[in-house]
Amino acid sequence: MLADLREQVRATALAMFQAGLVVGTDGNVSAKDPETGYIAITPSSMPYDQITTDDIVIVDVNQNIIWGTRAPSWETPMHTYIHKHRADVCAVMHTHSWYATLFAIANRDLPPATMPLAAQFGGTVRCAPYVRTGSDDMGRINLEYLGTRGRAVLLGNHGTLCIAPNLKKVLQLSRTLEEGAKMVYQSALLGAPVPLPDPEIAWLHELVAGFEADEEKAVETARSHP
Q1: What are the chain's domains?
Q2: Which one-letter DSSP state was computed for residue 148?
Q3: Which residues does the annotation mark as catalytic?
Q4: What is the tens place of the pLDDT at every residue in 138-173?
Q5: Which CA distances in Å does 202 have to 120, 152, 215?
């Protein structure tokens, strides 16, 4: 069932691991099939370099297992809640990346002090309060901090969460978040990091949104004219 989607989730999870965004079996990745609404998600407690396509589990938005023999990620409730309540989201990635998690441990928001942070996230990446892992509250509380258009949130005392329309984008966002957190953290050695002015943040974010819309149109055109 949904073999292509399961393979994409497996490959993205491996790329997340290889990029150093997680260690061991930390973190998780999911993707929603727009047609069925089913969600492919990484299994619980398996090293990413050992996961096969058949280890990826299919669940519905109510956390019922539709396909697979593995236990889905312990944090499936967070993924399903976000997929259920953000229609624009088809990919979710949770990481424990080093520098971004430092901000989460300190319960500090990440300011838009670099061009990539401003362009990709359109403002401050907020830090949500700590929520017990695997609980039903994870999705609800973190979605409150994401809002209706947010792309990333820091999970208090825990890690990061990025959401996107597709797996390629969610991996890019997670890498941008970590790189930006590293720069902001290290720039504090020189003094307090200075966020970009609000008009510049808005301009950069709109610019990237335009590029993404053009790319999506090109993909759709290619699909309709093979």
Answers
A1: 3-224 (3.40.225.10)
A2: T
A3: 75
A4: 999 999 999 989 999 999 999 999 999 999 999 999
A5: 10, 17, 20
